[in-house]
Amino acid sequence: MSTIERGRSIITIYSEKEAFDSHRIRFLLATKNINCKIISIDKNNPPEDLIAHNPDLEIPHLVDRDMHIFGVQVITEYLDERYPHPPLLPPDPMTRARLRFTVYRLEQGWFSYVDAIENNTGKKKTEAIKALTEELSAAGPLFAQQDYFLHDDMSLVDTNLVPFLWRLEYYGVDWPSLPDDLRKYAHRMFKSNAFRTSITETEREYRFDF
Protein backbone atom coordinates (compact mmCIF):
# COMPACT_ATOMS: atom_id res chain seq x y z
CA MET A 1 0.00 0.00 0.00
CA SER A 2 1.52 3.32 -1.10
CA THR A 3 1.03 5.87 1.64
CA ILE A 4 2.34 9.11 3.12
CA GLU A 5 3.97 8.72 6.51
CA ARG A 6 2.30 10.56 9.38
CA GLY A 7 4.03 10.64 12.73
CA ARG A 8 7.04 8.71 13.89
CA SER A 9 5.54 5.30 14.53
CA ILE A 10 4.12 2.98 11.92
CA ILE A 11 1.20 0.85 12.93
CA THR A 12 0.93 -2.83 12.09
CA ILE A 13 -2.27 -4.52 10.95
CA TYR A 14 -2.69 -8.29 10.92
CA SER A 15 -5.12 -9.05 8.12
CA GLU A 16 -6.66 -11.95 6.20
CA LYS A 17 -6.53 -11.78 2.41
CA GLU A 18 -10.14 -12.86 1.82
CA ALA A 19 -11.95 -11.79 4.98
CA PHE A 20 -14.68 -9.16 4.93
CA ASP A 21 -13.64 -7.69 8.29
CA SER A 22 -10.03 -7.29 7.19
CA HIS A 23 -11.09 -5.64 3.94
CA ARG A 24 -13.09 -3.05 5.89
CA ILE A 25 -9.95 -1.98 7.71
CA ARG A 26 -7.80 -2.01 4.57
CA PHE A 27 -10.30 0.26 2.82
CA LEU A 28 -10.21 2.66 5.76
CA LEU A 29 -6.40 2.69 5.72
CA ALA A 30 -6.37 3.45 2.00
CA THR A 31 -9.05 6.13 2.32
CA LYS A 32 -7.01 7.96 4.95
CA ASN A 33 -3.69 7.20 3.21
CA ILE A 34 -2.26 5.86 6.46
CA ASN A 35 1.31 4.60 6.47
CA CYS A 36 1.22 1.12 7.96
CA LYS A 37 2.57 -2.39 7.76
CA ILE A 38 -0.01 -4.98 6.73
CA ILE A 39 0.80 -8.59 7.60
CA SER A 40 -1.37 -11.23 5.93
CA ILE A 41 -1.81 -14.23 8.15
CA ASP A 42 -3.12 -17.76 7.92
CA LYS A 43 -5.18 -18.59 10.99
CA ASN A 44 -3.99 -22.18 10.71
CA ASN A 45 -0.41 -21.04 11.16
CA PRO A 46 -0.49 -17.73 13.09
CA PRO A 47 2.56 -15.86 14.40
CA GLU A 48 3.38 -16.74 18.00
CA ASP A 49 3.58 -13.10 19.07
CA LEU A 50 0.02 -12.56 17.80
CA ILE A 51 -1.34 -15.54 19.76
CA ALA A 52 0.21 -14.13 22.92
CA HIS A 53 -1.93 -10.98 22.66
CA ASN A 54 -4.94 -12.41 20.85
CA PRO A 55 -5.42 -16.11 21.74
CA ASP A 56 -8.80 -16.29 19.99
CA LEU A 57 -7.19 -14.90 16.79
CA GLU A 58 -9.78 -12.21 16.20
CA ILE A 59 -8.63 -10.61 12.96
CA PRO A 60 -8.03 -7.80 12.03
CA HIS A 61 -5.63 -6.96 14.84
CA LEU A 62 -3.85 -3.60 15.23
CA VAL A 63 -0.51 -2.95 16.93
CA ASP A 64 0.58 0.61 17.69
CA ARG A 65 3.73 0.81 19.80
CA ASP A 66 2.90 -1.47 22.77
CA MET A 67 -0.87 -1.36 22.28
CA HIS A 68 -2.74 -4.31 20.79
CA ILE A 69 -6.42 -3.97 19.87
CA PHE A 70 -8.94 -5.95 17.84
CA GLY A 71 -12.60 -5.68 16.93
CA VAL A 72 -13.46 -3.99 13.63
CA GLN A 73 -15.24 -0.98 15.08
CA VAL A 74 -12.68 -0.47 17.85
CA ILE A 75 -9.91 -0.35 15.24
CA THR A 76 -12.01 1.77 12.88
CA GLU A 77 -12.73 4.50 15.42
CA TYR A 78 -9.19 4.43 16.79
CA LEU A 79 -7.76 5.02 13.31
CA ASP A 80 -10.19 7.83 12.60
CA GLU A 81 -9.16 9.60 15.81
CA ARG A 82 -5.43 8.83 15.54
CA TYR A 83 -5.32 10.03 11.91
CA PRO A 84 -8.01 12.73 11.81
CA HIS A 85 -7.57 13.85 8.19
CA PRO A 86 -9.69 13.30 6.26
CA PRO A 87 -12.26 12.93 9.05
CA LEU A 88 -14.73 10.10 8.56
CA LEU A 89 -17.00 11.20 11.37
CA PRO A 90 -18.29 14.79 11.62
CA PRO A 91 -17.69 17.01 14.67
CA ASP A 92 -21.38 17.28 15.55
CA PRO A 93 -22.16 14.75 18.35
CA MET A 94 -25.67 13.98 17.12
CA THR A 95 -24.55 13.28 13.56
CA ARG A 96 -21.64 11.18 14.82
CA ALA A 97 -24.06 9.13 16.92
CA ARG A 98 -26.43 8.71 13.98
CA LEU A 99 -23.64 7.40 11.74
CA ARG A 100 -22.33 5.08 14.46
CA PHE A 101 -25.88 3.79 14.88
CA THR A 102 -26.07 3.20 11.13
CA VAL A 103 -22.95 1.01 11.32
CA TYR A 104 -24.50 -0.82 14.27
CA ARG A 105 -27.65 -1.44 12.21
CA LEU A 106 -25.55 -2.74 9.31
CA GLU A 107 -23.74 -5.13 11.66
CA GLN A 108 -27.02 -6.44 13.02
CA GLY A 109 -28.69 -6.51 9.61
CA TRP A 110 -27.02 -6.98 6.22
CA PHE A 111 -23.60 -7.91 7.59
CA SER A 112 -25.13 -10.69 9.70
CA TYR A 113 -25.72 -12.63 6.48
CA VAL A 114 -21.99 -12.91 5.75
CA ASP A 115 -21.42 -15.83 8.12
CA ALA A 116 -24.66 -17.50 7.07
CA ILE A 117 -23.62 -17.40 3.42
CA GLU A 118 -19.92 -18.15 3.82
CA ASN A 119 -20.34 -21.00 6.31
CA ASN A 120 -23.35 -22.84 4.93
CA THR A 121 -24.30 -24.76 1.82
CA GLY A 122 -27.52 -25.95 0.28
CA LYS A 123 -30.86 -24.78 1.62
CA LYS A 124 -29.50 -22.62 4.47
CA LYS A 125 -27.22 -20.70 2.13
CA THR A 126 -29.96 -20.29 -0.47
CA GLU A 127 -32.37 -18.97 2.16
CA ALA A 128 -29.78 -16.49 3.44
CA ILE A 129 -29.10 -15.19 -0.08
CA LYS A 130 -32.82 -14.82 -0.74
CA ALA A 131 -33.45 -12.95 2.53
CA LEU A 132 -30.48 -10.64 1.98
CA THR A 133 -31.57 -9.91 -1.60
CA GLU A 134 -35.04 -8.97 -0.41
CA GLU A 135 -33.65 -6.60 2.21
CA LEU A 136 -31.29 -4.93 -0.24
CA SER A 137 -34.04 -4.59 -2.84
CA ALA A 138 -36.22 -2.78 -0.33
CA ALA A 139 -33.38 -0.39 0.56
CA GLY A 140 -32.96 1.20 -2.87
CA PRO A 141 -34.30 4.64 -1.83
CA LEU A 142 -31.66 4.90 0.91
CA PHE A 143 -28.93 5.04 -1.72
CA ALA A 144 -30.62 7.88 -3.61
CA GLN A 145 -30.92 10.33 -0.74
CA GLN A 146 -27.35 11.67 -0.53
CA ASP A 147 -23.99 11.42 -2.29
CA TYR A 148 -22.76 8.81 0.19
CA PHE A 149 -24.73 6.33 2.28
CA LEU A 150 -27.07 8.47 4.41
CA HIS A 151 -24.57 11.35 4.52
CA ASP A 152 -23.31 14.13 2.24
CA ASP A 153 -19.65 13.23 2.83
CA MET A 154 -17.83 9.93 2.92
CA SER A 155 -17.92 8.45 6.40
CA LEU A 156 -17.09 5.32 8.37
CA VAL A 157 -20.42 3.97 7.17
CA ASP A 158 -19.05 3.81 3.63
CA THR A 159 -15.73 2.22 4.61
CA ASN A 160 -17.74 -0.55 6.28
CA LEU A 161 -20.40 -0.92 3.59
CA VAL A 162 -18.50 -0.86 0.29
CA PRO A 163 -16.38 -4.03 0.90
CA PHE A 164 -19.67 -5.80 1.68
CA LEU A 165 -21.24 -4.67 -1.59
CA TRP A 166 -18.13 -5.81 -3.48
CA ARG A 167 -18.77 -9.38 -2.28
CA LEU A 168 -22.46 -9.65 -3.20
CA GLU A 169 -22.04 -11.30 -6.62
CA TYR A 170 -19.46 -13.67 -5.15
CA TYR A 171 -21.97 -14.59 -2.45
CA GLY A 172 -24.56 -15.47 -5.09
CA VAL A 173 -26.74 -12.36 -5.02
CA ASP A 174 -28.20 -11.48 -8.44
CA TRP A 175 -26.46 -8.13 -8.89
CA PRO A 176 -28.45 -6.84 -11.93
CA SER A 177 -31.69 -7.35 -10.01
CA LEU A 178 -30.67 -4.97 -7.23
CA PRO A 179 -31.91 -1.34 -7.24
CA ASP A 180 -30.25 1.00 -9.72
CA ASP A 181 -29.35 3.53 -7.04
CA LEU A 182 -27.57 0.88 -4.96
CA ARG A 183 -25.56 -0.29 -7.96
CA LYS A 184 -24.70 3.27 -9.06
CA TYR A 185 -23.41 4.09 -5.58
CA ALA A 186 -21.42 0.85 -5.45
CA HIS A 187 -19.87 1.30 -8.90
CA ARG A 188 -18.81 4.84 -8.06
CA MET A 189 -17.15 3.68 -4.86
CA PHE A 190 -15.53 0.65 -6.51
CA LYS A 191 -13.81 2.96 -9.01
CA SER A 192 -12.13 5.08 -6.33
CA ASN A 193 -8.36 4.86 -6.02
CA ALA A 194 -8.65 4.08 -2.32
CA PHE A 195 -10.92 1.12 -2.89
CA ARG A 196 -8.80 -0.27 -5.70
CA THR A 197 -5.75 0.02 -3.45
CA SER A 198 -7.51 -1.88 -0.66
CA ILE A 199 -8.35 -4.98 -2.71
CA THR A 200 -6.14 -8.06 -2.51
CA GLU A 201 -5.49 -10.20 -5.58
CA THR A 202 -7.89 -12.81 -4.23
CA GLU A 203 -10.65 -10.23 -3.73
CA ARG A 204 -10.24 -8.91 -7.28
CA GLU A 205 -11.60 -12.23 -8.49
CA TYR A 206 -14.93 -11.62 -6.75
CA ARG A 207 -16.05 -9.40 -9.63
CA PHE A 208 -15.18 -9.41 -13.31
CA ASP A 209 -16.47 -5.96 -14.30
CA PHE A 210 -13.68 -3.98 -12.58
**SS elements, strand count:** 4
- CATH domain class of the domain at 93-192: Mainly Alpha
The class by helix and strand makeup works out as alpha+beta
Biggest sheet record: 4 strands, mixed
Residue ranges: pLDDT <50 for 5 or more in a row? 1-8
Organism: Marinicella pacifica
Protein name: Stringent starvation protein A
Brief write-up:
With 210 residues, the chain is α+β, with helices and mostly antiparallel strands. The chain is 50% helix and 9% strand. β3 and β4 form a beta hairpin.
Helix-strand layout with pairing:
Elements: E1 11-15, H1 20-32, E2 36-40, H2 48-53, E3 61-64, E4 67-70, H3 72-82, H4 93-108, H5 113-118, H6 122-138, H7 156-166, H8 168-171, H9 180-190, H10 193-198, H11 201-204
Helix pairs in contact: 1-3, 1-7, 4-7
Descriptive notes:
Residues 92-208 form the GST C-terminal domain. It holds the Pfam family GST_N_3. Residues 9-87 form the GST N-terminal domain. This is Stringent starvation protein A. One of its GO terms (cellular component) is cytoplasm. The protein is an alpha+beta fold and 210 residues long. The protein has a domain at 93-192: Glutathione S-transferase Yfyf (Class Pi), Chain A, domain 2. 50% of the residues lie in helices and 9% in strands. It has eleven helices and four strands. It has a four-stranded mixed beta sheet, with helices on one face. Strand 1 (11-15), helix 1 and strand 2 (36-40) form a beta-alpha-beta unit. Helix 4 packs parallel to helix 7. The protein is globular and about 45 Å long. Residues 1-8 have low confidence and may be disordered.
